[in-house]
Design brief:
Blueprint lengths: L1 E8 L8 E4 L4 E5 L7 H10 L29 E9 L14 E9 L4 E5 L2 E3 L1 H8 L11 E2 L3 H6 L3 H12 L2 H261 L3 H70 L5 H9 L8 H4 L1 E2 L4 H8 L6 E3 L5 H5 L9 E3 L14 E2 L4 E2 L5 H4 L2 E4 L2 H8 L7 E4 L3 E4 L2 E4 L9 H190 L4 H82 L4 H7 L6 H17 L7 H63 L3 E6 L9 E6 L13 H18 L4 E5 L7 H14 L4 E5 L3 H6 L2 E6 L7 E6 H9 L1
Parallel strand pairs: 3-21, 3-22, 8-20, 10-11, 14-15, 20-21
Antiparallel strand pairs: 1-2, 1-4, 4-5, 5-6, 6-7, 9-13, 12-14, 15-16, 16-17, 18-19, 22-23
Helix pairs in contact: 4-17, 5-13, 5-14, 5-16, 5-17, 6-13, 17-18, 18-19
Length: 1170
């Protein structure tokens, strides 16, 4: 897979569409600073998916679009396309079969990016997937931008690990691991939601089970109600059906009377029709006579018009004959004039033709003289061009030698200046060595690190305190949440019990509640709420008191008659708390039931003569000794009297009133206690949060102090490193200055020799130029003589040509006039013949006289006489039509009278029919309702008693409706919902099992990915480390370097580089010089390339910090690797340029706009050798 070309349009300084061809594996990009070379690197990173504008040296993604210059307007979008040669098939997946792969990215001003693969729109992820594991990417080790070499070698261990992961192909494993972790996270979230859902469904199932039982009871009552309502509809339909039959009989009688009146109306209409037929015949006769009259009038008018037209036409023909004779005379005159003019033109043409021939011969002779003069001038110009070429070569030689002399003199002056600067720099270096500053910084840095360590200890202690406080807060919040949940459940139970209790005590009846509010008793307690029963005897008391438990406690019955006058519906019981009931003697051997009850008032009115027994045998034994008013009740609610026994085993909402009232009281006490406990927990949590806030503030203060101390220590360490680097730089620079000074002296001596040689060549060229100047003057004089001869020949030729042209124009004008005169003469003769023919024709027409006009006047007299006769017949026909129309009007009035009578009868019939129809519709509606209810009308009538009435069935239906209403709100869907929720729970249980199994599978996959990642990383680390150990000595000429792991876990451990150039004992990579860091980074990157060669590598001024010797080693290594990796490098170094097979120059002749100049080095060498 090889990069073949880069297409740029509108990207940064490349505003015009530009194509950079990459024909070989060593391509150099050169140009001055700021011309846009690095924009090529940015373009490649951007098209590979770079999404950070900061990494593209911009503030936003719109900054990559050309923003205009002094001469150019901004553009609206930018586009970059990379073309790859995939003939080796290294790209896998769906694009493996393509020999060429094109990747393109476009961006508009709104920041919207669009990606294309082989012209097809795709996602950014599709682009990154193609390069996964290849070493290519927007931030991979294959693209080394300016400054990245130093950042790479000084990178943190975690950042350096990323490059090894890319080389090992771990990036795709990390992507798979990230996706798997996301799936695990989603699976766990789904599992949590499923657990919450199952818990909620369990609660719902209990509630729906109760509601479904109530719904079943409701359906039974509804079915009974439906039967009763269907019978009611059948009775109503029977009544309406009889009424409908009676009205139908009345309608038939009315229709018979209406038919008789209609027969009389039809007789009148028949007579009227006869009269209308007679009227039609009379009208036809009248119309025929009237038509004859109108036709005769038209004939009279037509003949009168014909007479008038004949007179006008004869007058026009006489006028036209006079005009024709006049025109014929004028045409004859024209013919005579044209004949004379034609003869004169023929004579003129014959006279001019000899003169024209003579003039043409003179013009031909002048042309030959002009051609000879021009040929002489052409030969002189060729000789002059040759002379100028030789003169220019000599002048160019002089200019070259002068330029070379100027360049040598300037360069020698620069060498003198550099030698002077070198001497001054050597003096400065000797006087500015920072050795003392290094010792001072070492001592200050150690003190600052001790201070930072002390602050760190305090910070850890504060963090421990915060953790303890937070744990306490979490524990209290858990207790609060559990207590709130219990509190919420108890309140729900209390609300349910209170609702049941209200229904049991009749407090849900709207009629009774309204009456109590009207009487001011809405807040009065019920009897069951005011009494307290001994535990275990609740059922017995409920059996005895029964409906009296719902009694409203009032203070006296003084206004009972007035109060009860407004009570019209419902059941009501009142208990007088102020009543004094005389005590009834009781059997001292028996236990009264009243002893089992504690209440604010006496219960003697309700419980006197009622005794309590523990069991049924005991009660039966007591029953034999009871009087007629006495009774005994057992603990489980069996009530026995003299000759009677009652047992209550109902399971409706009336049962358990007293037990429920006791449970309500207990729940209210428990809820109050929990509320107090919750308040206490909240107060403790608030105090703990205040303590946590204070601790966090203290930790923040300590963190700030620690950060400041750590920052100061870092600054001191950085200052120390910088100072050490300066010291080392001073030493290295001093050696470099001495070496460069010697080199400059040798170079100056060599250039002084070249200066003398160039001066000799310049003097020789100046002598040759003086000889050429004399030759130039001679040739100039020859030119002036030739120009004069050429001008005279041209003037003579021009005069001859002009005379010949004037004679030719005159001859042509005479010929044209002759042809025009001939054509005009022919037209006049033809017109003369046409006018003579028309004159003869008009004379023949006028010779016939006035004969046609006399005949027309005779016909007019006959037509006028005939019209008078027809006018008399027309009056008689009109009289007959008027008589018949009078008879028609009389019969029509009779018909209208009869129609009104029939309409009145029909209206009465329609009114009765509408009434019948209304009854019919009502009965049909009732029948439809019976059918919709699912019953048969005949079967309903057969099943009912003969004595059944509408009122009885309506009362029965109302009773059933009230019973249904007493059931309260019913959830009819509860039955189906209960079944659906049950099935849903089974389904969700299965889902829970599936999710648990899927979670285990995903965790197994994570472990497998981690294992493969560790193996690959370890293998890659060992190979790259070995490559670094081999390449480092080659680049430095000695020394050694190696990598080591920063941690123990291969899954996330960082990587550090240790390097020691020959002859040095540096303890850290930061102590290396800039050039040494660059060489170390190059050794590391090339070791990675050797392991995983990426398709191409882009290097941006990597050799900027290297001297010539190191640049040579760097180039040797690039050439070695170019067999596996394609290199595109940006450089300012001549040695690196010599390595390139092709050089692409970037220029900026137009401010702000980059352009390309490409040079093939091999082709250039061949051209220079020719």
């Amino acid at each position: 897979m090889r990069l073949t070309k880069i297409k740029l349009a509108g990207f940064k300084s490349f505003v015009d569409p530009t194509t950079i061809y990459i024909p070989s594996k060593l391509v150099g990009v050169v140009g001055p600073n700021g011309c846009g070379k690095s924009n090529i690197i940015d373009a490649v990173r951007w098209v590979m998916g770079e999404s950070s504008a900061k990494h593209l040296r911009g503030d936003s993604m719109a900054d990559v679009i050309f923003n205009g210059s002094t001469a150019r307007k901004p553009v609206g979008h930018a586009s970059i396309e990379l073309a790859f040669d995939n003939t080796e098939g290294k790209v896998t997946g769906q694009y493996a079969g393509y020999n060429e792969i094109a990747i393109r990215r476009q961006v508009s001003r709104d920041g919207t990016s669009t990606y294309f693969l082989n012209g097809t729109r795709c996602r950014r992820r599709d682009i990154t997937d193609i390069f996964l594991g290849t070493g290519l990417g927007p931030r991979s080790y294959s693209i080394i931008e300016q400054g990245m070499i130093s950042r790479l070698i000084e990178a943190k261990p975690e950042e350096l690990r990323v490059f090894l992961e890319e080389a090992a192909g771990i990036s795709k494993y990390k992507e798979r691991r990230r996706e798997t972790e996301n799936r695990i996270k989603h699976t766990r979230e789904n599992l949590d939601r499923l657990n919450d859902l199952l818990e909620e469904i369990d609660k719902q199932l209990g509630k729906l089970k109760r509601q479904s039982r109530a719904a079943e009871r409701y359906k039974e009552l509804k079915e009974e109600e439906r039967q009763v309502k269907a019978e009611l509809l059948a009775l109503r339909y029977s009544s309406l059906h009889e009424d409908c039959s009676e009205r139908e009989k009345q309608i038939r009688e009315l229709e018979t009377s209406m038919e008789a009146e209609l027969a009389e109306q039809r007789a009148v209409e028949a007579e009227l029709e006869k009269l209308r037929e007679s009227l039609t015949g009379a009208n036809e006769s009248f119309n025929e006579v009237q038509g004859d009259y109108y036709r005769l009038g038209a004939d009279v008018a037509r003949i009168e018009q014909a007479i008038q037209h004949s007179k006008e036409s004869r007058q026009q023909q006489q006028q036209e004959l006079a005009r024709a004779e006049q025109t014929l005379g004028e045409v004859g005159e024209h013919i005579e004039r044209d004949t004379s003019r034609l003869e004169q033109l023929v004579q003129d043409i014959s006279a001019i033709e000899p003169e024209l021939q003579t003039t043409a011969e003179r013009a031909e002779q002048a042309g030959a003289v002009l051609q000879a003069a021009e040929q002489a001038m052409h030969e002189w110009r060729e000789a002059w061009d040759e002379f100028n070429r030789r003169s220019a070569e000599r002048s160019q030689s002089v200019q070259v030698e002068r330029t070379r002399l100027d360049h040598l003199e300037r360069h020698m002056q620069q060498l003198d200046e550099r030698l002077q600067r070198m001497g001054q720099e050597q003096l400065n270096l000797d006087s500015d060595a920072p050795a003392d500053e290094v010792d001072r910084l070492i001592q200050v840095a150690a003190e600052q690190e001790e201070l930072a360590a002390a602050r760190q200890s305090l910070l850890m202690a504060a963090g421990q305190r915060i953790s303890e406080v937070r744990s306490g807060i979490d524990l209290r919040e858990q207790e609060t949440a559990a207590l709130q949940s219990t509190h919420h459940d108890l309140r729900g139970q209390l609300a349910s019990l209170e609702t049941l209790q209200q229904a049991a005590l009749g407090q849900r009846s709207a009629a009774v509640t309204g009456w109590l509010e009207a009487q001011g008793l809405s807040g009065a307690p019920r009897l069951a709420q005011e009494i307290e029963v001994e535990s275990g005897w609740e059922h017995a008391v409920e059996t005895v008191l029964g409906q009296y438990l719902e009694a409203v406690c009032v203070d006296g019955f003084e206004n009972a008659e007035q109060m009860l006058s407004g009570f019209e519906q419902g059941a009501l019981a009142l208990f007088n708390t102020a009543a004094e009931v005389a005590a009834v003697p009781i059997n001292g051997a028996l236990a009264p039931l009243a002893n089992k009850i504690r209440s604010p008032w006496s219960m003697a009115a309700l419980l006197d003569s009622v005794y309590a027994a523990e069991s049924l045998p005991e009660a039966l034994a007591i029953a034999g000794s009871l009087s007629a008013r006495e009774s005994v009740v057992t603990r489980d609610g069996i009530w026995i009297g003299q000759g009677w026994l009652r047992v209550a085993r109902d399971a409706d909402d009336k049962a358990g009133v007293l037990q429920r009232e006791r449970e309500i009281g207990q729940l209210q006490e428990e809820i109050a206690a929990q509320a107090a406990q919750l308040e206490s927990l909240r107060a403790d949590t608030a105090r703990a949060r205040d303590e946590l806030l204070a601790a966090e503030q203290e930790r923040e203060q300590l963190q700030g102090e620690y950060n400041e101390a750590h920052r100061r220590a870092g600054e001191l360490q950085a200052e120390l490193s910088a100072c050490r680097s300066r010291l080392e730089h001073h030493q290295n620079r001093s050696q470099d200055v001495l070496r460069e000074t010697e080199e400059l002296r040798v170079q100056k001596s060599r250039e002084e020799e070249e200066h003398g040689t160039a001066r000799a060549r310049l003097d020789e060229a100046l002598a040759e130029i003086e000889m050429l100047t004399a030759e130039r003057e001679e040739r100039t004089r020859r030119q002036q003589a030739l120009v004069e001869e050429l001008d005279a020949a041209r003037e003579q030729s021009r005069s001859a040509q002009q005379a010949m042209h004037e004679l030719a124009l005159r001859a042509e004008s005479l010929r044209t006039a002759r042809e025009a005169t001939q054509e005009s003469l022919e037209r006049m003769r033809e017109q003369s013949r046409q006018l003579a023919s028309r004159r003869d024709e008009l004379s023949g027409i006028l010779s016939h006289g006035d004969t046609p006009i006399v005949e027309l006047e005779s016909q007019l007299s006959e037509k006028l006489a005939r019209r008078s006769e027809v006018e008399a017949d027309l009056g008689a026909a009109r009289k007959q039509v008027e008589d018949i129309e009078h008879g028609v009007r009389q019969q029509d009035q009779e018909r209208v009278r009869l129609e009104r009578a029939v309409a009145g009868r029909r209206e009465q019939v329609e009114h009765d029919r509408m009434a019948w129809q209304e009854i019919k519709v009502r009965s049909d509606t009732l029948m439809e309702q019976i059918s919709e209810s699912g019953f048969d009308y005949e079967q309903l009538l057969g099943a009912m008693d003969e004595a059944a009435t509408v009122a009885a069935r309506a009362e029965q239906a109302e009773t059933l409706e009230k019973r249904i209403q007493r059931l309260g709100p019913i959830n009819l869907a509860a039955i189906d919902e209960f079944e659906e929720e049950s099935e849903r729970k089974v389904y969700l249980d299965a889902q829970h099992a599936d999710l648990t199994e899927a979670l285990e599978t995903l965790e197994t996959a994570i472990a497998k990915i981690d294992r493969e990642t560790r193996d690959r990383f370890k293998e890659t680390f060992d190979i790259v480390n070995k490559g670094l150990q081999e390449r480092f000595p080659r680049l430095f000429g000695g020394g050694h370097a190696y990598m080591e792991l920063a941690g123990e876990d291969l899954l996330d451990t960082g990587v550090t580089v240790m390097a020691r150039p020959p002859g040095k004992r540096n303890s850290t990579i930061h102590l290396l010089s800039g050039g040494e860091k660059a060489l170390t980074a190059i050794a590391l990157v090339f070791s990675i390339f050797e392991l995983t060669p990426s398709p191409f590598c882009m290097l941006d001024e990597v050799d900027a910090q290297l001297d010539d010797a190191n640049v040579g080693r760097y180039c040797d290594m690039v050439r070695e690797l170019s067999g596996q990796v394609q290199f595109i490098f940006i450089t300012h170094t001549k040695i690196t340029m010599e390595m390139a097979n092709q050089l692409t120059g970037v220029t900026m002749n137009e401010p702000g706009v980059s352009r390309l100049v490409a040079v093939d080095i091999d082709a250039a060498v061949e051209m220079a050798a020719m």
